[in-house]
Amino acid sequence: MSVVSMEVKDGLAYVWVDNPPVNAISHGVRQGILEGLVEALEDDGVEAIILAARGRTFMAGADITEFDKGPQPPHLSQVVETLEAAGKPVIAALHGFTLGGGLEIALGCHYRIAATGTKLGFPEVTLGIIPGATGTQRLPRLVGVKAALDLITTGKQITADTALSLGILDRLSGDDLMGQAADFARDILAQGEGVRRLSEIMIDPQSIPAGLFDDTRKSLAKSKRGFESPQACVDAVEAALLPYPQGVAREREITLERRASPQSAAQRHLFFAERACGHIPNLPKDTAKRLIKKVGIIGAGTMGGGIAMAFSSAGIDVTLLEIAQDALDAGLARVGNNYGGNVKRGRITQAQADECMGRISGTTEYANLADMDLVIEAVFEKMEVKKQVFETLDDVVKPGAILATNTSYLDVNEIAAATKRPEDVVGLHFFSPANVMKLLEIVRGDKTAPDVLSTVSALAKRIGKVGVVAGVCFGFIGNRMLQGYAREAGLMLLEGASPGQIDQALYDFGMPMGPIAVTDMAGIDIGTMIRQALDPSAYDANAFAVHDRLVEMGRKGQKTGAGFYRYEVGNRTPIPDLAVDAIIGQEAEARGIARRSISDDEIVQRCIFALVNIGAQILEEGIAYRSGDIDVVYVNGYGFPRYRGGPMHYADHVGLAKTFEIICALRDQHGGRWWTPAPLIERLAKQGGSFHSF
Ligand code: 3H9
């Protein structure tokens, strides 16, 4: 079946794109549009041409699956130029999403009409590239440099109303997009307006606020630290001040460079990985789903409140349970304040905040959770407490409801066994703040029913999260790997690195915060409590010696004003503390560890390859289905730099042969207890393979 067709009706040619699911502009689409256009132009009976798309959306951009193959003519820019060069008026009729190359095609057309509800934008920057099929040259000519920079460097989507006010759209249509597109075409013909070409506009340099490009570069260097494509977008938009052919040539140069960059490979990898994790192996797409209309949440602390917000913001009714009325009141007040904060920052309107709060009710009685479709427990992280909650839920909640635990490392099978319906039990591990963080680890117990998995996986998408399925083990995917990362940071403290050096090295690698500062923020005592429940053989006591000393001294981190760093009242900026350096020195001496100078490269290598080695074990054990799932967890839950694609993609980028060599060298230096290379790495290294195939 051809992905583009052409029909002529009453003097108008309709070029239809039909390439489900999102009309990505594949080679066939590009070729088809050109052929349809030629046919329409050659037909003397055709006075104007309408370009439209079938299905749920206009065109969502270039076909990203083709990127690795290299550009294949006809190029997208050629299609855009040909549309613009047409001698008969071409009108783009937009609906659904008009993104990236889809918007570039629309800008090549002479006129644009869109159905209400259409979303438009240039998301290329999120893929490490630029709108390189003349988008960076046409948009500033149409809406001005400032507005274009804003759209292109952020990748944000705008509504049809905003697009109309910016001048991107000429008209909005009601329900009958195609009927109104035809009326629009006839108006254009009747008024003899003919063709309009954005490429013919020259931008007046006087219209650009002084210092706009440099200020934008500086601000992006902070807000998008480490990302190359936002800067490249500014360079390309700046080139729109040149005469059109030169601007386009510069855009092409930048496009080819970005497309071949490791950052773009990393960001494209994540685009597909984030979608792949919704496909659960051995779970047919048509697996039944349970209806989720009412959600109960146990525990109205920061986590429970954040989870409540995630559901209520998605239009789902929530009942929040706390045993004590004052704790419940405090929890509800916190949620109210958070919504209030969102209103103040202009993220939502007061009416939306009121609507969301209206969907959340509180209770102190378990009996009021009886008719919930899903109950999520977010209570204290102790097995006995969790089991008690699940026993109660088993007695109270209606049959068929899903019972979920928000545990971050406990055994979900053991929790499930506290009920008479383990098939209804699943782990839903949210990340704090749960109303903001995108990641949801979905922990499948041995007995979790397929329809429970399929329901919560779809639910994750409904509440705006990326749901990644993990198997049961201590810490699942994310926290199990984190143990290696934290261990190496702790060991390097004793071996000679300072907290500040470790944090700076990993910050420079791209992490939002170094591991020591994160520990101070989370509370050092949390880790101490978790280790107390573990067999000592499961962790390296040396790595946490300083942590335990600090906790004994009451230095539990930010919350006590001191931890690895000092903090001034009301300020979270970490201040290095000589007292901590002294403790580190004492602990190293007591353990016979000689202190030496440690390079920043060693810090990054040990912390990151510890993640990779455990990631490979997790993959081989089947705890994670795909290496991409691990990357999605680390980027969305732990702040691993998106432009590096996640730890497993990073290892692929370094090369698995090199990765194996590095881990072997670390084993030779530090022993095989933690540094025995995962068999999967060894195997792939020897076969010349990569994690990408997993
Ligand atoms: C570009 O245009 C470059 C140009 O400037 C030229 C430079 C020279 N290609 O997200 P969903 C697949 S770059 C290929 O779950 P939704 C997706 O993988 C492009 N495939 O649906 C998934 O497959 P599967 C700029 C694509 O309803 C299926 O479609 N454009 C593409 O939640 C459904 O996707 C973008 O970055 C694509 N472009 O969201 C927009 N897009 O079912 C990318 C989607 O096998 N797309 N697929 O997992 C999106 O943001 C969302 O897909 C959209 C729909 C909002 C449209």
Tell me about this structure:
This protein has 694 residues and is of the alpha/beta class. It contains 29 helices and 17 strands. The strands form 3 sheets. The protein has an 8-stranded mixed beta sheet, sandwiched between helices. Helix 17 links the parallel strand 16 and strand 17 (466-470). The structure holds (S)-3-Hydroxyhexanoyl-CoA. The site of (S)-3-Hydroxyhexanoyl-CoA has 26 residues, from strand 5, helix 3 and helix 11.
Structural features:
single chain; 694 residues; alpha/beta; 2-enoyl-CoA Hydratase, Chain A, domain 1; Rossmann fold; N-(1-d-carboxylethyl)-l-norvaline Dehydrogenase, domain 2; 3 domains; 8-stranded mixed β-sheet; 6-stranded mixed β-sheet; 29 helices; globular; binds (S)-3-Hydroxyhexanoyl-CoA
Reconstruct the topology from this structure.
Elements: E1 4-9, E2 12-17, H1 27-42, E3 48-53, H2 76-85, E4 90-94, E5 97-99, H3 101-108, E6 111-115, E7 119-121, H4 135-143, H5 145-154, E8 157-159, H6 160-166, E9 171-173, H7 177-190, H8 212-223, H9 229-238, H10 244-259, H11 262-276, E10 294-298, H12 302-313, E11 317-321, H13 325-344, H14 350-358, E12 360-363, E13 374-377, H15 383-396, E14 402-405, H16 412-416, E15 425-430, E16 439-443, H17 450-462, E17 466-470, H18 478-495, H19 499-509, H20 515-522, H21 524-532, H22 545-552, H23 578-590, H24 600-621, H25 627-637, H26 647-654, H27 656-670, H28 672-675, H29 679-687
Parallel strand pairs: 2-3, 3-4, 4-6, 5-7, 6-9, 10-11, 10-13, 11-12, 13-14, 14-15, 16-17
Antiparallel strand pairs: 1-2, 7-8, 15-16
Helix pairs in contact: 1-2, 2-3, 4-5, 5-9, 8-9, 9-10, 11-25, 12-13, 13-14, 18-24, 19-24, 21-22, 22-23, 24-27, 26-27, 27-29
